[in-house]
Design a protein that fits this description.
Elements (H helix, E strand, L loop, with lengths): L6 E2 L10 H11 L10 H21 L4 E5 L2 H10 L5 E4 L5 H6 L4 E2 L10 H8 L6 E4 L13 H10 L3 E5 L14 E5 L10 E5 L22 H12 L5 H17 L3 E2 L10 E5 L5 H10 L2 E2 L1 E2 L2 E3 L2 E3 L2 H5 L4 H4 L2 E5 L6 H20 L1
Parallel strand pairs: 1-11, 3-4, 3-5, 5-6, 6-7
Antiparallel strand pairs: 2-8, 7-8, 9-10, 10-15, 12-15, 13-14
Helix pairs in contact: 1-7, 2-7, 5-6, 8-12
Length: 357
């Protein structure tokens, strides 16, 4: 009996490594010396590290500093816990990691689509009498909603504050925003897991207390993975138009069959969408999709056996019942029309079955 090939639709969680990244990692594994060592082997590794740093910056069009990290979580931790501006503001739809490291931050209100409105942010920052760090993501990891970071950056700068942008879901797909600090996760665009970067416009924004990366990060740099991430970033993302077409077809089909698209009226990236299947719990959907060979995720998270409403949907004011019936579908470089058609057929089947029972 031939095993049915699974259909992966969870690219927002992680993307498979590109061949270019694998080859670059393999090359890096041949140069295993510590880049901080003073001998010839160490100096050779250091030269490769700095070459990767230059290529990484060039691929992004970034003219500031690059601190290589173990991933987006560490980059966020450095940005929020080493920030010289003591006062912090964050949007309530940020990734869980941001909420964890900014527990004393003040919340920035969002509208029903999860968008930060520039006028509201301007009003909020009027009361700030010293520079603050403002954290707003570029693309939401659950809904795909795109924040207008250029407009928000202008508000932040006009108020004498600084902008931290988590660009984990947009790097390699959208241009960099005009931010002071930018977070990058290598595994989201075809690089290896366990490597990322913090882009810094001015290092004076951060307190240095590390031994590597100009004193802003402790630990031996992961040269093979840094090389792999850089190679992935340099690989052309020529599939964006196809992704937009596939996501639009999926949106239309879900609406036609009686479902709904979360943040339907907001600008959204082509690779991420959340869908509501009325009357069917997200965990039930996940089980049925998984058994049918589809890898998708929920707009809600399971914790200790209890389905907890997504903090993103909660911040948007989504009805709790609806929030518990939302799943996320995210597409990538290898997603085909056949994959989307098959998913739609299964979505229709699950929904029809729920109405018969």
């Amino acid at each position: 009996m031939t095993e049915t090939k699974r259909i992966y639709l969870d690219y927002a969680a992680t993307a498979p490594m590109l061949d270019a990244a694998r080859k670059a990692c393999a090359e890096g594994f041949e140069h295993w010396a510590n880049p901080s060592s003073p001998h010839a082997d160490g100096r050779a590794a250091q030269a490769m590290l700095e070459n990767a740093r230059r290529r990484f910056s060039d691929a992004l069009g970034w003219d500031g500093d690059v601190i290589f990290t173990s991933g987006a979580s560490e980059a966020i931790r450095i940005a929020l816990t080493r920030s010289k501006p003591v006062i912090q503001y964050i949007s309530p739809v940020e990734h869980d990691v941001v909420l964890r490291f900014a527990q004393n931050a003040k919340a920035i209100p969002v509208d029903s689509n999860g968008l930060v409105v520039p006028a509201n942010l301007n009003h909020l920052l009027k009361s700030v009498d010293e520079p603050a760090m403002v954290a707003i993501q570029s693309v939401n990891n659950e809904t795909g909603v795109i924040q207008d970071l250029d407009a928000l950056a202008k508000v932040v700068r006009d108020r004498g504050c600084y902008l931290l942008a988590d660009c984990s879901q947009s790097i390699g797909k959208m241009p960099l925003p005009d931010a002071d600090l930018i977070v990058v996760a290598g595994h989201k665009f075809g690089g290896p897991p366990g490597v990322g970067a913090l882009l810094v416009r001015d290092l004076r924004l951060l307190e240095a207390d590390g031994g590597q990366e100009q004193g802003y990060r402790s630990g031996t740099q992961n040269l093979p993975y840094i090389m792999g991430m850089t190679a992935a970033l340099e690989t052309p993302a020529n599939w964006a138009g196809r992704a937009s077409e596939l996501r639009q077809h999926l949106d239309d089909a879900i609406r036609k069959e009686g479902g709904s698209v979360i943040a339907d009226k907001a600008p959204r990236i082509a690779t991420i969408a959340s869908y509501h299947m009325p009357g069917v719990a997200a965990n039930t959907q996940l089980i049925k999709f998984d058994m049918a060979g589809f890898s998708v995720s929920a707009g809600s998270a399971c914790s200790s056996g209890t389905l907890k409403t997504s903090h993103v949907l909660e911040a948007m004011g989504t009805d709790p019942q609806i929030a518990r019936e939302v799943i996320r579908v995210s597409i990538g470089r290898d997603t085909s029309r056949a994959h989307i058609y098959a998913f739609i057929d299964k979505w229709k089947s699950i929904f029809a079955e729920s109405r018969r029972s």
